[in-house]
Amino acid sequence: MYDPKSLKASEFIDHQEVLDTLALAPTLAADRAAVAAILDKAKDRKGLNHREALVLLDCQDEDLNQELYALARQIKRDFYGQRVVMFAPLYLSNYCVNGCLYCPYHQKNKHIPRKKLTMEEIVREVTALQDIGHKRLALETGEHPVYNPLEYVLEAIDAIYSIKSKNGAIRRVNVNIAATDVPSYRRLRDAKIGTYILFQETYQRDGYVRLHPSGPKSDYDWHATAMDRAMEGGVDDVGLGVLFGLEGHRYELAALLMHGEHLEAVHGVGPHTISVPRLREADDIDPSAFGHGLSDDVFAKIVAIARVAVPYTGLIVSTRESAASRARVLDLGISQISGGSRTSVGGYYEPEPEKENTAQFEIADNRSLDEVIHWLMELGHIPSFCTACYREGRTGDRFMTLCKTGKIQNCCHPNALMTLKEYLLDYATPRTQALGDSLIASQIGEVPNLKTRDLVIQRLAAIDQGQRDFRL
Length: 472
Ligand code: SAM
Hints:
- The protein is an alpha/beta fold.
- The protein is built from 19 helices and 9 strands.
- It has 2 domains: 77-366, TIM Barrel; 409-464, no CATH class.
- Helix content is 47%, strand content 9%.
- Strands 1, 2, 3, 4, 5, 6, 7, 8 and 9 form a 9-stranded parallel beta sheet that branches.
- The structure holds S-adenosylmethionine.
């Protein structure tokens, strides 16, 4: 029986079950009929469990793997159309009391400059983010009870929602901060956060303990049960992730899906998003020292498997990945990406001087937001700045129900076109604007029903006349 007070991670990340899954998968993966049956099941678009997903991961048959990729592409198209939701991270502070061996913000790193944005600096950063067109942020902080208490984060969220530069506004603030207790999650919910994001980093308990030698984050159970407390505190949308490259990826994929299965079983709704960060070089950090680097092929396969295993869950890739890697995984299932990102504390308003580098990791895609938007459209995607679901109360199980009935498309596609139009008018370079306008013109006919189509045409004209923030 689920009891939030005594919940242990082992109740849903059952180590023996993961080991059994990993032991069984190679045999089934060598059996063409078994793999074909799993792919057939995936075609129902109701997802796969962790055991089935691992069989796909271990499958070496080229034809069957191509079938998997084709299905991932098709499911992406059926559920998300050509849309890609845009966001940017905003690092508030790199003060941290944890000892995470892979993160340059770890407490023992004495040479990285420590920095925390003041409210004035937050206003400057958010204004700069608005002025390039962002509408959705992911807030990031280290864990520090004195420098970054919850009150600081709440004050920042409040400030961010109130900043309005020209036609700009941040309409959804997602939050990636350390695991906390139910009353604190309730306060984050009341502050109107979007998704609460927390990466497990690794689900392998031994590895986790080794990689987190000190600080509150060293408690595996506290960290792994955070999403249950967040949901208990009324946060509807939670985002999972592992940091690929720390430990073996087969274990991570099985356990990540088990975590999602647990949330769905207990709270009636699975993860809103899954992120797939890969370990990057950083001050003090050499990814090769961890010995579990993933090839681009395996990384792409993990994304494809996640796409067919959890069709309703948004998949996020950041600027940790290069343009080439992002293009590949966008095709296979990624639905949200960041653009024009800085992983330093500050840096949007003015670039950090070299010697004050506070970056958490090196970015592999350094292009501006406008360049990313142009590139996405060239590849046939529709960049979307939509935040409507959350603002219309379509979160948690309400959102999932709309997804499962396919009705969400009636809102998503028009909202993507309208928010893209806003972006083009307010922020785009002429060449991006021209490409975007022809994309929108070619997409109007795809709006599901005639009445909605007329409404979207009217609203696009109103946006042209200076009105903003329409949403379905
Ligand atoms: N402080 C929060 C916590 O403890 O969970 C999370 C915020 S942290 C700023 C965001 C994420 O960056 C971490 O969860 C980790 O997965 C990732 N990260 C840390 N070091 C990294 C590195 N060297 N390369 C890539 N990602 C890294």
